[in-house]
């Protein structure tokens, strides 16, 4: 569902201080000991190169609902998610919200063609990120082409994810969208080396609706239908057991 924000909400969001002032605790990042480095754009770097990265990076900690940066804010930093889950979204002129992506460990955000961020970013659950000052990172990318190639490759995957969302927002039914979404979350978890089934679904039904172009009620009703059809089971801590993956694939493909 597109969530309608009040004028107070809009002004509050737009008036927030820059992320570096409002983000939580920060400390120097021990890049060499990072448990998700193999997923990030730092993956191809050797020890000497990592030492240069460590000098410019800081850790940022966010609690659920904390904003990282806002659409239109000066794009002074680039971030890499090391734990948790983030959502990125745009505010439409009428105040409605369109979520354009969910980000997890290893994903990056904040890369901007212009001098400002093209979207807003907010923590879904407790999350930690590495923060790279944009200008300093650009200098490192020039110095270490392997890192630049890795970042470009990840940007290509981000574009593919945007195209996937366009398909989800196309002519699929609500049932097809939810089945596709659950399978996609499982696939992304497997790519991170995590459990693909049961799949972690940390976002709210409202967030899912704002991502898939559905109302919250339709999302909840569709989850209930899939559960009653014994295709999924709803588990504690926001997990969903995909009981019949093949049947879900059939639904996702419109069969």
UniProtKB/TrEMBL annotation:
UniProt KW keywords: DNA-binding, Transcription, Transcription regulation
A Gene Ontology molecular function term of the record: DNA-binding transcription factor activity
SUPFAM superfamilies with a match to the protein in the record: cAMP-binding domain-like (SSF51206), Winged helix' DNA-binding domain (SSF46785)
Matches recorded under Gene3D superfamilies: Jelly Rolls, Winged helix-like DNA-binding domain superfamily/Winged helix DNA-binding domain
GO cellular component: cytosol
Domain of life: Bacteria
Residues in Cyclic nucleotide-binding domain copies: 41-110
Pfam families, per database record: cNMP_binding, HTH_Crp_2
Residues covered by the HTH crp-type domain: 172-246
Name the record gives this protein: CRP/FNR family transcriptional regulator, anaerobic regulatory protein
Origin species: Tistlia consotensis USBA 355
Taxonomic classification: Bacteria, Pseudomonadati, Pseudomonadota, Alphaproteobacteria, Rhodospirillales
């Amino acid at each position: 569902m597109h969530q309608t924000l009040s004028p107070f909400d809009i002004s509050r969001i737009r008036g927030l201080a820059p992320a570096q002032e409002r983000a939580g605790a920060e400390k120097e990042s021990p890049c060499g000991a990072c448990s998700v480095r193999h997923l990030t754009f730092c993956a191809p770097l050797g020890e000497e190169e990592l030492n240069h990265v460590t000098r410019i990076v800081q850790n940022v900690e966010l609690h659920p609902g904390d904003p990282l940066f806002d659409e239109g804010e000066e794009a002074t930093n680039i971030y890499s998610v090391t734990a948790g889950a983030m959502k990125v979204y745009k505010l439409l002129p009428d105040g409605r919200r369109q979520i354009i992506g969910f980000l997890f460990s290893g994903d990056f955000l904040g890369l901007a063609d212009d001098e400002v961020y093209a979207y807003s970013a907010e923590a879904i659950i407790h999350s930690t990120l590495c923060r790279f000052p944009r200008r300093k990172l650009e200098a490192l990318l020039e110095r270490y082409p392997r890192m630049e190639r890795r970042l470009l490759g990840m940007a290509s995957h981000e574009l593919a994810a945007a195209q996937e969302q366009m398909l989800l927002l196309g002519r699929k039914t609500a049932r097809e969208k939810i089945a596709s979404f659950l399978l996609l979350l499982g696939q992304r978890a497997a790519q991170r080396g995590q459990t693909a089934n049961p799949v972690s679904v940390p976002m709210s039904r409202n967030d899912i609706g704002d991502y898939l172009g559905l109302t919250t009620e339709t999302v909840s009703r569709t989850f209930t239908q899939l559960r009653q059809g014994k295709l999924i089971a709803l588990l504690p801590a926001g997990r969903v057991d995909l009981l019949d993956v093949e049947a879900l694939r059939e639904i996702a493909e419109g069969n």
